[in-house]
Request: fold
Amino acid sequence: LAPVQVIILSAGVGSRTRSYEPRCLLKYNNKTILDNQIEVIYNCFHSPQITIVCGFDSGRIIKKIGKQGRIVENTSYDITNNGESLRLGVNNSLLDNIIFMHGDLIISEGIFEKINYDKSFLLTDSSNKFDEKEVGVTVVNGKATILSYSLPTKWCQIAYLNENETSILRKLFLKPDFNSKVLLTFEIINKIIESGGSFNCYDVGNNFIKEVNDYRL
Reply:
């Protein structure tokens, strides 16, 4: 596997969890979500480049991350969606192989195993690991066709972009009419697919992954 840039999107306020702090700093089994993600990333990839896009209470995240990764700040976190955080992370990456994930996911190493990294992909779940209200994906012949709400197979909020899809995304970000500030990450993936991009889909199966929706872990 070529060197990979991992972008962790952690700019929002943890209002949904009622913690009102960065969700990535919530603890699970005496370890913060951010610590869990970084540990898994370093165990699964050779010399990964890690970027954390933060916003709310960024000082705490900066203090926590130390030298384990670089920080990019979304100073407009309170009036933008995570598509803007993705834009900032991608524009600060020199690599073309990019993994991005939401900052409120507790993950296990197994989700990144038995995957072909020659092609872009999405991680999916068909075993009810994610709430019914979360974004799903329609899969045809192993490939994503559209991401939307109310679909039974869920997107795990983790995507890998190979050179082609990264190139498409960079071009989209350069378009004057492409306003990432109001888009969510799944909508940006749809834009990539509409522009000729392709994503294989891999179900996480029995591997552990959990989206944090409540501070009471």
Observations:
- Residues 33-44 form the longest helix (12 residues).
